[in-house]
């Protein structure tokens, strides 16, 4: 404000003019306003020189946003100088020039202002019988730097421009220049031309300007001389102008039927604007929903990739542990081979000393018979346990089949209960997190148990090399099979992600086509919707096929677990067969002992002293054999304990597989829910498009111009 006053005083000194007291007073009063800078010069007599100075000041002013020049009785030259100054201004929001009797020169200056000043958005030119306040322009300005302090100004919308009791329509040439400015202006929103003595020729020029103006929303031409010809020209202009939403024509000698037609055209424009705004808001809502769906799908994909990476890490750890176990088993087998060679040498040494061990051999026979009976009892127990496990497996298979049938029925019911499932999605998400924690705890327990079993198996590694080699081969095969399953699952997930991305791209293209062709291409939109529905059905069928394949893979994994159990049972049978071989070897040794006793019966007297020595040695060896037999019994007990642990681990593995199947089913249900939401959104959009099309058609048929067009 102080800068404006200083510049005004300097220009007055340069021009040799004394500054007017009314202007200085208004500048002083305007300093007290904080929100809006206002300069009120209403009912003040301004000379031509003062207008020239004010025009120069307003050309570079960035302070005032509201200027009132009501009833100032400006001369043609003074009004021209002021308006030329406003052409370069970028901050004026309100301009009031009521009751200044502007004519040809004023009209030309206003036309130039409309052409060059792009900050004025709404201008109204009016002359009315009542001296009311006239808002000329409210402006939107960008943040600019001022001359005296880098002041930032924001562009704001102009409400109105009013020029009451002017005579803009008396001179046709000046009014033509004004209409040319209205035609080229791209910011004006409201134009008021009441009581401006505009005839039908001036209205014709204004109608030509309206045909090329796509910004003006309100026009007031009350109390002019429009007449029949002017009304027809306005009606023709409204057929091309679709932005004018209000047109006042009272007191212009226009027939009632023509007024009704103009009102219908204006109401049609307003309805079209409202429908466009609604369609834009709906499109924004749909784009936001699609973005949310994309974010959720990306989160699900990242979670799945994290689970896959964890499984890969677990597989690598298990392979490393298996390699370490193989190395330890090989070392144990070498030690066993050396021990067996030493035992063979001892057996050769003890062949000569076994002649006098008949009594002890009888005792050993009794012990062997007892061990045979124990082995038979163990075989019966193992057979019973195997039968029980087979029955349990059959029952589990039947339960799984029932659960699959029940799941299929539930899927049909879930399609009808979409709303309830949306509420339960959050609860299911919490349950999934809890299940993941349980899986982590279960994996930790399994790792601890595996470590314990490895510590127990290290004792048995020295005597079961061949069995461990077979088990290692089986484990390698299982690891390879699990890797193949993981790769197949990764490929399935990647295909599914690509399909979802394709669906998203198709949806975006469909939305763009629907926005562009809501009114004119209804048939094409319906065909596209039908195609999309068919595509979605095909994709659903493909998803169902993929789910069936996954279920088939799960069943295969279950069969593989059963095959592992059978292989472990076969290893037990092999151990029993080896025990039988040892018994046959002992029987052969007994026969050999009998033969040796017959040969040595004649030499008893000669070797009495040697026999006593040999008896002492044999007693020591028998003690060693008894200790070895006790060790064998302890090993048998350990074997039984390991078999029990294997059973527990197999049951835990089955429980984990069931938990994973439940997680897979929950994820599939979520995917189906999202797909159903997308289908519902498409159906809603199609219904909205059909409603809009029907509403527009009904409106066109109801209007008299729509009826005339249909007749033509």
Walk me through what this model shows:
- With 712 residues, the chain is mostly helical.
- The protein has a domain at 351-601 and 610-707.
- It has 15 helices and six strands.
- It has helices at residues 2-15, 21-30, 48-59, 76-87, 104-116, 172-184, 200-212, 227-240, 256-350, 358-416, 418-460, 465-516, 522-600, 608-702, 704-711; strands at residues 38-40, 66-68, 94-96, 190-192, 218-220, 246-248.
- Strands 1-2-3 form a three-stranded parallel sheet. Strands 4-5-6 form a three-stranded parallel sheet.
- Helix 5 (104-116) packs parallel to helix 6 and helix 6 (172-184) packs parallel to helix 7 (200-212).
- The longest helix is centred in the middle third of the chain and has 95 residues, at 256-350.
- The chain starts with a helix and ends with a helix.
- The model is unreliable at 121-158 (pLDDT under 50).
Topology:
Layout: H1 2-15, H2 21-30, E1 38-40, H3 48-59, E2 66-68, H4 76-87, E3 94-96, H5 104-116, H6 172-184, E4 190-192, H7 200-212, E5 218-220, H8 227-240, E6 246-248, H9 256-350, H10 358-416, H11 418-460, H12 465-516, H13 522-600, H14 608-702, H15 704-711
Parallel strand pairs: 1-2, 2-3, 4-5, 5-6
Helix pairs in contact: 1-3, 3-4, 4-5, 5-6, 6-7, 7-8, 8-9, 9-12, 9-14, 10-13, 10-14, 11-14, 12-13, 13-14, 14-15
